[in-house]
Amino acid sequence: MCADFNGSRSDPRIDVLLGNPAVWRAGKSGGASAAVIPTGFAVLDQRLPGGGWPAQGLVEFLIDRPGMGELGLLLPALVALQRLSLETWLAMVSPPHEPYAPALATRGVDLKRLLIIRTPEGLWAMEQALRSTVCRAVIAWVGDTQSLRMQWLRRLQLAATQSGSLAVLCRPRRHARESSPAVLRLELEPAATGLTVRVLKNRNGPLGSVCLRLLDADD
Amino acid sequence: MAVPAKSLDLFPPRGPDENRDGMRSEGGSALLKSTPAAVAASGSHPAAATARELWLALHLPGLPFEALRAAGHVSEREYHGPLAVVESAGRQQVIACNAAALGLGVTAGMGINAAYALARRLRIHERQPEAERLLLERLAGWAGRFTPRVSLEPPDAVLLEIKGSRRLFGGIAALAEQLAAGAREHGVTPWIALAPTSRAALWFARSGEKTSITTVRDLPGLLACLPLAVLRWPEPRVTLLASMGVHAVGDCLRLPRDGFARRVGPALLLELDQATGRLPDVRRDFRPQVRFSGMRDFDDEIGQGSWLLERLDSLLDDLAEFLEARQAGVQSLLLLLLHRDRPPTRQVFRFALLATQREHFVAVMSEQLSRIQLQAPARGAKLRSGPLLMNATLSKPFFFATNAHAPEQISRLLERLQARLGADSLYRLQAIDDHRPEHAWRKVASWQEGKTAEKKHSHRCRPLWLLADPQPLEHVGGWPVSGGPLEIRRGPERIEGGWWAGRDVARDYYVARTAAGVRLWIYRDRHVPHGWFLHGFFG
After folding, report:
1. Cβ contact (<8 Å) for A67 and B513?
2. I want to staple B473 with a disulfide (CB 3.0 to 4.6 A). Which of B106, B374, B429, B480 is the partner?
């Protein structure tokens, strides 16, 4: 009646239980059946459950200097999301500098469906954008001056899962040690060869770090 | 020589002894001789006993005040006390004052301080052109019951062509009486005049004379006494004419035509011709815009904004039905909350895209209504819509549209964000064809569907982030440093341009990497003093 650790199961009820993506079995990664969005970087895909960004939920990027690589990391997935449907929008909340339209357009972003919001109430705006279900991905930058209570993180995670959208929150690195309800937490740091991505929290997946080469001027 | 009265063409035929521009063969010519015999002899009019049209003009001299009262900005008591209207809060000059204020010595053109000095109890309000226009349109819409040809003469007159309506309404006098009564019910007091041409009727009405002319022949004689002020011609022209000794319309009519056209302008000559009936004056018919208007009285008095929404349920249902029946949508709604002793509270709701569904209205209104501060309990509500716009159905092929509700959802999101954060917190981006990086993009605040297709951009490498202002970099030995030496990865790319805008840009751009691994987009200014600047970040 008990499930074998080798994987041969003798009871269908256990199958149902184990098939639930909320159940995490140590030692078995990549078993999540939730939808994912390929990141565009094969090395990173291998580290993430399902082979990509979670299609819904809150992802945290912990980065010291905003604008040093998080957008380039997300860009292939954002472009893919926009291409899925003509009605999908993207939103950027309080970006650190001006997103440069020609560069985004060259990479394949449809600027007509990209919404930029600049406001001190970034978290509220992010929640609204997520709940609207028409923004499939919302990236928000939160600075040092704003304190982020656990309550807000839970609200964002809830809004993202309920509407089936990807929420990416970029925060300063000193919050790396704090607990968070996000499904995925990555610490990003620019390196001489590209971008170092350290996986701090990963549901259904291994921790560790990997170094990526973003799309460079040389490529 | 006279042309028989039975000719039916619209343009009065000219006599054979006149040239094309009306100059007589003998020296000097006249616009019009002002004696009837000369008119008949000139041959420029058919000697018609009755005119082909009869225009009734309603001039509303008190429109600024009446509009304020209709919109609820002034109470009845204020309206009958001394009241003055200023153009806008900035310009401190009175532009109109009512009879009570005139009696105390306040006149138009006076400064506000002077006005207050003369009349301590004076109430001053800003002019509301929108309210005036609405009241004028409402009056014109109502006047449509007398004749199909109603025309507006903004800002303060309505013209009706009533030749065909006389018999139905029992004669001109009875018609005018009914018009005046109805106008009083709308809260306006009109000055009425009747004339065979619309422009003449307008001028007579403005002068305040209760004139009633039915034949074209009598027109010039009676027009002669009108002062130039009723024509509302531009100030410089009037001054010019005054310097020539011309103070009344009759003097203008006696001037030579070609000289008048040369000095004062052919447009004003045309107006005179239209007034005397020499040339036709085509007026655009006024078509009242269909709008939704509904009202509900509440069973109880509502003191809090958050309870309002459920009381408005039935009104919104009506609105949705109204729009559905006409296959139309609205972009703005006006809600008036009625109180017992106070003027109504106004609340305007705007929608980013066309709104047709009840849920859409509720979604936008609930946010604002919950934050509304009611000065007094509300006993009822009136809902008025903005102009109706046709509901253009989306023609995207259905197999692309995975989410048919997306346009509504995005517009709802935009409205919600705009309502709380302000309209300039949201924007989209647009890439522009310009070599200069800071001009190669701009913010777009309009949310309508763009018509132009996106141009394919083939830039070699551009950073994902651009700094709003390029930051100067320190340099050592001619090369820039930023927290350590910079490694140049690519470049230079020379970008020049902008000489046509007066700001010439000449830069050499490089892609550089710091020791920490951050990739920068920097440039060296080719103008003196050749500084190095940071302009963007990759990634």
Report:
1. no
2. B480
Residue A48 lies in a domain: no
Residue from B359, B514, B537 to probe the interface with A (highest A Cβ count within 10 Å): B537
Q: Which residues of chain B make contact with A69, given a CB cutoff of 8 A?
A: 539
Mean pLDDT calculated for residue range B189-200: 91
Give the total residue count for chain A: 219
The whole model's pTM is what?
Answer: 0.49
Residue A22, pLDDT score: 64
In angstroms, how far is CA A194 from the centroid of its own chain? Answer: 19
Is the backbone of residue A95 left (phi > 0), alpha (psi -120 to 50) or beta?
A: beta
Inter-chain touch B539–A69, beta carbons under 8 Å:
yes
Domain annotation covers residue A201: yes
* C-beta separation of B119 from B97 below 8 A: no
**Structural domain includes residue A166:** yes
Number of structural domains chain A divides into: 1
* Radius of gyration, CA atoms only, chain B: 33
CA distance A189 to B131: 60
Looking up residue A116, the CATH number of its domain turns out to be 3.40.50.300
**For residue B395, what are the contacts with CB-CB under 8 A and spacing of at least 6?**
none
Strands A57-63 and A166-171, sheet pairing: parallel
In chain A, which among 59-78 make CB contacts under 8 A with chain B? 65, 67-73, 75
Q: Tens digit of pLDDT for each residue in B391-438?
A: 654 333 333 344 556 677 888 888 888 888 888 889 999 888 888 888
| Residue B526 falls in which region: left (phi positive, over 0), alpha (psi -120 to 50) or beta | alpha
